[in-house]
Amino acid sequence: MEKQYDDSWTPILKPLFGQSYMRQLSAFVQSERQYAKVFPPANLVMNAFKLTPLDKVKVVILGQDPYHNDGQAHGLSFSVPKGIALPPSLKNIFKELQDDIPGFVEPRSGDLTHWAKQGVLLLNATLTVQAHLAASHQKKGWETFTDSIIHAISDRCEHVVFLLWGSYAQKKSVLIDVKKHLVLTAVHPSPLSVYRGFFGSKHFSKANEYLVAHGKVPIDWRLD
C-alpha cells in the first residue's frame, strides 16, 4: 500500500498515531465509513502531509473542517479537485489574490495542489467529515492531533507564516512561537464575514515579503 504521508513527517506522526486517542479516532472513522459516506476518501485524509514535506513548510493555512459535499474534499484546506465548482470562501480567497498579487487571474480550478507542492501546508483542524453533515467529526480527537502538528511545526521549523482566518483558527495562535514565526490573522473568507477585513488584508504579499526577508523563495500564488 502506498504511504499516505511524506517520510519527513514520520518523527511527528508516528508517535501521534500510537496514542490511545488516535486509535479511538481511527476506530470511529472506520465505523462511520461502514454505514455512511465520509469525506475525504481514506487515501486522501493525509494528503496535506503527502504533498508538503515538513522541512519544506513555509506557510500554513488553517481551515476548520473538510468540505462535506460530494467530490469536494481532497485533504487540503480550502481546496477542491479540478472540475468541482468553487466554494464561496475559495472564490473570496481568489478575489483577494487578484487585488493583492500582480498577475493573479482567477483560475478555472480550485485545486490548490500547486501551493502545497511549494511549501503551503493546507491543514484542516478536523481531517474527516460525514457527507452533508458539517462538523460531524469535530471533538472526536482530530483537533488534539492537528494542534500537536501546529506545535511541532512551530518547534522544528524556522520563519513559517501562519495564516489564521476566523476566530476558530485564531485560537490556534497560542500554539505558535511568535518570536520565530509570523502569524497573520483576519476574519474568515466566507461571504458572512469577508467584507469585515479579509478583503484588503494582503496576507499573500505579506507572507512573501516575510519569506524573502528571511532568505526563502516566495510562493508563486498563481494557479492554472
Strand content: 5-15%
Find the structural class using helix and strand composition: alpha/beta
Mean pLDDT over all positions: 97
* Shape call: globular
Number of helices: 8
Query: Main β-sheet: number of strands, strand sense, barrel status?
Result: 4 strands, parallel
DSSP E strands, number: 6
Give me the Rg, rounded.
17 Å
Order of helices and strands: HHEHEHHEEHEHEH
Strand arrangement, largest sheet? Answer: 3-2-5-6
Give the uncertain stretches in residue-range form.
none
The percent range for helix content is: 25-40%
User: In whole angstroms, how far apart are the ends?
Assistant: 31 Å
Provide an overview of this structure:
- The protein has helices at 10-17, 20-35, 47-51, 88-100, 113-116, 142-156, 167-170, 203-213, and strands at 38-39, 59-63, 120-124, 129-130, 161-165, 182-186.
- The protein has eight helices and six strands, in the order ααβαβααββαβαβα.
- The protein is of the alpha/beta class and 224 residues long.
- It starts with 9 loop residues before the first helix and ends in an 11-residue tail after the last helix.
- A four-stranded parallel β-sheet has the order 3-2-5-6. A two-stranded antiparallel sheet has the order 1-4.
